[in-house]
Predict the 3D structure of the following.
Amino acid sequence: MKVLDFGSLNIDRTYSVDHMVSEGETISCRKFESFIGGKGLNQAIALKRAGANVKLAGCVGDNDGNILINYLGENELDHLITKVKGDSGHAIIQIDSLGQNSIIVEGGANKKIEEEYIDQVLKGFNKGDYILLQNEINNVDYIVDKSYQMGLKIFFNPSPINEDIYKVDLNKINCIILNEHEGKCLSEKDGKLEILEYFKKIYPEMEVVLTLGGKGGYYCHKETLIKYDACKTKVVDTTGAGDTFCGYYIACQSEGRTIKESLNIASLAASLACAKNGASNSIPFMKEIEELNFKGEK
């Protein structure tokens, strides 16, 4: 089973602060660090470290893209990355004293993906293969349409929520993985179960994984409803935890594990990512989970 992660690559500029800056406020940061990130890259690293047969596709800028391409090489991640004129995407991340984050993303090269390049990438995949998409790149609607025509199984992490989301035909999505904020925005419902009921009613064939951070989350598909728990950890930095969960869940599914196993293993992987600073560099390897004798069967 091949997995194509078609997504973003960013250079993350991370600022550790006592609290999130408020409107009209100027604050000093306690520490500045630069990391490699982007939801596409993070999720591809998670897929790779979880054992999936994954390739990453996307665009980087010719001004600074070698930093990102070299990082992929260091992590032995197969890719189909192409360079475009200008700068790569970047993110400005605030991390408060509790490890919570607030993120601003500048698309850069991630917003310069052309249809011709998409067609070329998809030629290497076949019916039944998996494709993972986020919303940090342009032309997501085109990628979804082409992937649907080809018979790929489409996983969608609709982050960030913006007007481009509404161009995507969600009826073509096999599985959506989203957090509570994203669920509220797309469903216009407040409660967790109300969000799930909305997707069940409007998109009856779609699998839904609703993540709730430290409260665990839910899987819903037709009459099946599974709740999973979060694993307790000392939170240092939540950046990349959601991407870790997403990559691990899809990797476990591609290996044929049960839904319950996949959810529990992904939850543990996300908790381990929270215990370290940074995004992609904080993502654990499957061997770390195996060393804990954790099989995700509960």
In short: The chain has a mean pLDDT of 94.
